[in-house]
Specification:
The protein is an alpha/beta fold. The protein is built from two helices and five strands.
Length: 99
């Protein structure tokens, strides 16, 4: 789980997840909470960043308006793949809720 802080931090989150994936892992998830305005733009930037990642293989399979499944190569063994499900949630700051 991460709070959206831009593309660079998001890519670092994917890299962090990559470090945790073992040879036996086949499914992972990255949950992103957005506290900024422009949630649609955040979704698009995240999707673009996933596709630009060096371990990206295919996808997305769209599972909802802010839920996407990708196939990634395991960084430790390129012959192994795993599913990465990206779920994004918009959580406005309390002062943004009324305006």
């Amino acid at each position: 789980c991460k709070i959206w802080e831009g593309v660079t931090a998001f890519t670092a989150a994917i890299d962090q997840l990559q470090r945790y994936v073992t040879w036996r892992d086949t499914k992972t998830a990255l949950v992103i909470f957005n506290r900024n305005k422009g949630f649609s733009d955040v979704i698009q930037k995240a999707k673009d960043a996933v596709r630009a990642h060096p371990q990206y293989k295919s996808g997305p399979l769209v599972q909802g308006p802010a839920r996407f499944r990708y196939v990634f190569r395991n960084a430790n063994d390129p012959n192994r793949e795993y599913a990465l499900t990206l779920m994004l949630f918009n959580v406005p700051k309390p002062d943004d809720a009324n305006g």
